[in-house]
Write a sequence for this structure.
């Protein structure tokens, strides 16, 4: 019985783990300033989508007309629930 509860506890611990990665997507010719724009979105099981994590939306949110850098942060929980945040800096 103890072994069974140990396996259940391990399964729950694995289900609650996730990983997060920041990936540089692109760099432009604009100077890097303190202006920053973010946009986010996510998916559930690869079937249900919400939000707009595009570079254009992030630039619009930060009132940026010339993009200097674009990074994307991806957080995944067992590949079933994935959150994406795009961060744009520029002028």
């Amino acid at each position: 019985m103890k072994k069974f509860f140990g396996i259940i506890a391990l399964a729950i611990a694995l289900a609650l783990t996730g990983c997060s990665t920041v990936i540089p997507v692109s760099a432009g010719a604009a100077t890097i300033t303190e202006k920053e724009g973010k946009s986010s979105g996510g998916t559930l099981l690869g079937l249900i989508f919400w939000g707009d994590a595009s570079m254009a939306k992030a630039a619009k949110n930060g009132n940026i007309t010339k993009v200097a850098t674009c990074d994307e942060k991806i957080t995944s929980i067992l590949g079933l629930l994935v959150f994406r945040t795009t961060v744009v800096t520029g002028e």
Q: What stands out?
A: The chain has a mean pLDDT of 81. DSSP finds two helices and five strands in the chain.
